[in-house]
Amino acid sequence: MKQLLTGLVFIFCIGCTSEKGPAPASNQVDCNTAVITSARMYAIIQENCTNRACHPGSGSPVVADFSTLARLKTYVNGNEAMFRLRVTGPNADMPQVMAYPALSRATRDSIACWIGKGMPD
After folding, report:
1. pLDDT of residue 29
2. For residue range 85-112, what is the model confidence (pLDDT) as tens digits?
3. Cβ(38)–Cβ(69) under 8 Å?
4. Is residue 43 part of a domain?
5. pLDDT tens digits for 35-79?
6. Checking phi first, is residue 119 left (phi over 0); if not, alpha (psi -120 to 50) or beta?
7. How many CA atoms lie within 13 A of 118 on its CB side?
8. Which residue range is the domain that position 47 belongs to?
């Protein structure tokens, strides 16, 4: 019995260490190194905003017209604070209809980087 108890204590002591595991990977986009193009960002907007009949331009149910890249840029330039709040912010609520999935954090960060860099082509 004593040997069994000694063995269990030994295993317990060896099994308990205070090593730290690796830090969790960050899902944030690094704006300094990310290559973010207007073509890619507009494709994301088309997929999530324009093609779902929310911001198509003609007959759009809302004010924002994202039917072309130029119109998207014009809208963002004139409404940047609102766009950031609704699309890229921590409490972003777009897309909001028909139970479409929320934009991923990486997508929101990429759009925010693109805007922050002046929406380069």
Report:
1. 82
2. 999 999 888 887 667 788 999 999 999 9
3. yes
4. yes
5. 899 999 999 999 888 776 677 766 655 678 888 999 999 999 999
6. left
7. 2
8. 27-116
Amino acid at the residue 44: I
Q: For residue 6, tell me if it sits in a domain.
A: no
Q: Is residue 54 part of a domain?
A: yes
Vertex 11: Cα angle to 7 and 17 (nearest 5): 155
Residue 23: half-sphere exposure toward Cβ, Cα within 13 Å: 3
Distant-in-sequence, close-in-space partners of 54: CB < 8 Å, separation ≥ 6: 60, 61, 62, 95, 97
- Tokens 């972003």 locate to 92
Predicted model pTM? 0.71
AA identity, residue 50 = T
Q: Give the type of residue at 92.
A: A
Which two structure tokens, joined as six digits, stand for 61?
């149910």
Closest CA to 62 of 38, 86, 89, 88: 86
Residue in 18, 55, 29 with CA at minimum distance from that of residue 112: 29
Is residue 4 assigned to a domain?
A: no
Q: How many helices (H) and strands (E) does the chain have?
A: 5, 0
Please state the domain count of the chain.
1
